[in-house]
Design goal:
heterodimer; A: alpha/beta; Cholesterol Oxidase, domain 2; 6-stranded parallel sheet; 22% strand; B: mainly alpha; 59% helix; globular; binds flavin-adenine dinucleotide; binds iron/sulfur cluster
């Protein structure tokens, strides 16, 4: 059963066999397996459940209600860069683009070798990926929902010598509305609230929404439950307390919130909880073509390519609500008005790169995560040199100008000579407009207790009854969109705990 | 906080917000919707009220800073709102294009938050030519819906 705010205003106290904090990519998959195994399963989610009728294309309004910190969360460190995540039943899978990739072999091998995680080489993880892809209907984006933007992205990447392909996505009946970042009112996106949670509920899982966990209850080194508050998703007022007692506690609150909950509970793993933090860095080229593109039509992210020169670097098509795309692009006053008709002719190609970055996650005074990320200039130069390929290609194919949001290069790059400025080593990492929505590694998995927070099964070292199942456990960035790997790891590790067949077919 | 002080603070940041909207979204002879037709001040106030507590505090702080910072940086030129709308736009542009990281951040943040609200007004969407092929039945945002040459039109969402 799914419990909503109205029935929770007085708080609650329950016992269970397993309690899971967070209903996103990791938590929902784990809850589904526990419930299927017949365990009394409680799933706690800070945000509300939303349905098609709650969805709006008004980006700021949607984000204010359904993203953590209203979508305005910034990473400190080298720059002040936005990082977003969903505060909603289904977590960030409800507001993401549904792209699904397994971990590339070289990253998987890196995890296994560098961190002593040999078990990741086995067939169990392959079987988990297969189950996840089948359940989420993952398939390459059909051309019928490309729209002009994805078609043009393909032409631009082809022309740049980048061999791409339609992106594999977890969707069923996508209508190419380009609205993925504000949910999918069409009901096509197979976010975990659609692909997993109904099964969990059918198998008896109790799902509590608007339930914000404050800390894990520890009896010595043993986790015995959690406590927190029911919080109104609109006013954010704390309404009542709740307690769940369970001998198994799974934390799946995401890379930024999981370390906060652990630290508050006195679980620090010798300072390693939140002592590391990693993210893919990303930049973009926005081309304004000499013809209509109507970028708002077509699958949000339908086409992409891997770099043939830089390992771990990926190009993707993207559109988001214009209100979000247009935040930095252009000037003010009359300059801005002049630019409005350009939207119709625009398309955006972001680059996502597995850079060597460092970071950490602490706790702010208001209890929210305080994440810091440092990006070396050299790594940003790698991104910019690859970005130049896209910019050149856009210009060759008729772009009137290209905007990159990089300080120190012309705001409207009109010629290849001007594009050369992207290669300048005067550009500092903090000069680049960047977002970091793929975040990992705040509670790293390692084969060695002195190097990580959790072991290969997600169990927190030095504790009993406590596991982590979300992106926080990645030992290093995944190099591809992470959700499939988060789901597969959660699937494998929750099956192990629940004694389910690890090699079961989909 | 003693109440006259909190009223003063509210006055300052509301003035900063109004002044920024006048400066950055003046009437446009070319016909683009401006700050008045998009009801930018009232919508922004409502938006701030809808945010989580930390940002209900931070965004007013931004407008408070915008209003008073010019006074601190160049006392002879007065508060932000005392300048002409054109001078306000020029000041924000110079901050955004300048070398001082903190001022750049301030200018960018101001521009981004106002622009987000501006670009989510239906009259602006119409002016830009934005539309969708699938209607959201319960959406308060009045998004234009019509056929696309590239995509079959679907009437409505589930
Ligand atoms: C805009 C955007 C687009 C993206 N696109 C893609 C994509 O196309 N493909 C891809 O692979 N990845 C994508 N990602 C990344 C992907 O969505 C995340 O990596 C993934 O969802 C993370 O899974 P998770 O389980 O770690 O956390 P989440 O999915 O974020 O789930 C964590 C859940 O825990 C809840 N929670 C947090 N704290 C508490 C608490 N104290 N009490 C109770 N509940 C709590 C949160 O509300 C949330 O529901 C995108 C991300 C964003 C922001
Ligand atoms: S593009 Fe539109 S229809 Fe397709 S999954 Fe995204 S939101 Fe749903």
């Amino acid at each position: 059963m799914i419990h909503h705010l109205d029935s929770l205003r007085q708080g609650f106290e329950v016992d269970a066999d397993v309690v899971i904090i967070g209903s996103g990519a990791g938590g929902a998959v784990a809850a589904t397996n526990f419930a299927a195994a017949g365990l009394r399963t409680v799933l706690l989610e800070a945000g509300p459940q939303i349905s098609a009728k709650d969805m709006t294309r008004d980006g700021p309004a949607f984000m204010a209600r359904h993203y953590w910190e209203g979508g305005l969360r910034l990473l400190r460190g080298t720059g002040a860069w936005p990082t977003m995540s969903g505060r909603i039943l289904g977590g960030s899978t409800v507001i993401n683009s549904a792209i699904m990739f397994p971990l590339p072999d070289w990253v998987r091998e890196d995890w296994a070798a560098a961190d002593g995680l040999d078990a990741l080489r086995g067939p169990e993880l392959d079987a988990a990926y297969k189950r996840v892809f089948a359940r989420t209907h993952t398939a390459p984006t059909p051309e019928s929902v490309f729209g002009r933007r994805n078609v043009l992205t393909r032409e631009i990447l082809d022309h740049a010598g980048l061999k791409g392909a339609p992106l594999p996505r977890a969707v069923k009946g996508c209508e190419g509305t380009g609205d993925c970042l504000t949910g999918c009112a069409v009901g096509a996106k197979q976010s975990v609230d659609r692909s997993y949670l109904p099964g969990a509920v059918q198998d008896g899982a109790e799902v509590y929404t608007c339930a914000v966990v404050h800390k894990i209850l520890m009896d010595g080194t043993r986790a015995v439950g959690v406590e927190g508050h029911i919080v109104d998703p609109d006013g954010h007022a704390k309404l009542a307390r709740f307690t769940v007692r369970a001998p198994r506690v799974i934390v799946s609150a995401g890379t930024l919130h999981t370390p906060v909950i652990l630290k508050r509970s006195g679980v620090t793993a010798g300072g390693r909880v939140g002592g590391t933090f990693l993210a893919h860095i990303s930049s973009f080229a926005m081309g304004v073509m000499n013809h209509t593109v109507d970028p708002w039509i077509g699958a949000t992210q339908g086409y992409g390519a891997f770099s043939d020169r830089v390992r771990g670097l990926k190009f993707e098509s993207l559109w988001a609500p214009s209100a979000l795309i247009g935040g930095q692009w252009g000037g003010v006053g009359p300059d801005m008005y002049e630019m409005l008709p350009d939207f119709k002719r625009a398309l955006m190609i972001p680059i996502v790169y597995r850079a060597k970055v460092t970071g950490k996650v602490g706790i702010r005074l208001d209890g929210m995560p305080d994440a810091q990320l440092w990006v070396p200039n050299e790594e940003m130069w790698v991104v910019l040199s690859e970005l130049k390929r896209v910019v050149d290609s856009m210009l060759d194919l008729g772009a009137e100008y290209v905007y990159t949001g990089v300080r120190g290069v012309p705001p409207k790059i009109r010629t290849k000579e001007q594009a050369m400025s992207l290669l300048s080593h005067d550009i500092q990492a903090r000069d680049v407009t960047m977002t970091a929505n793929h975040t990992f590694g705040s509670c790293r998995m390692s084969g060695r207790a002195d190097r990580g927070v959790v072991d290969v099964n997600g169990k927190v070292y030095g504790t009993e009854g406590l596991w982590l199942m979300d992106a926080s456990v990645f030992p290093s960035p995944s190099a591809v969109n992470p959700q499939a790997t988060i789901m597969a790891l959660a699937d494998m590790n929750s099956r192990r705990i629940a004694d389910l067949d690890l090699l079961a077919t989909a | 906080m003693p109440w006259p002080f909190s009223i003063w603070i509210e006055n300052v940041w509301h003035t900063g917000l109004r002044a920024a909207v006048e400066g950055l979204y003046p009437p446009d002879p070319g016909g683009a919707p401006d700050g008045v037709t998009t009801d930018l001040v009232a919508r922004h106030l409502a938006y701030i009220r809808s945010l989580p507590p930390s940002h209900r505090f931070l965004l007013p702080l931004l407008f408070f800073g915008i209003e008073l910072l010019p006074l601190a940086l160049a006392p002879w030129s007065g508060r932000f709102s005392r300048r002409t709308p054109q001078a306000r736009a020029a000041l924000i542009t110079s901050w955004r294009e300048g070398r001082i990281f903190a001022l750049r951040g301030l200018g960018d943040a101001l521009r981004a938050t106002l622009q987000m609200m501006y670009l989510s007004h239906p009259s602006v969407l119409r002016h830009m030519g934005e539309y969708k092929t699938v209607a959201y039945l319960d959406d308060k945002l009045d998004m234009p819906i019509h056929d696309s040459p590239d995509m079959p039109r679907v009437q409505e969402s589930l």
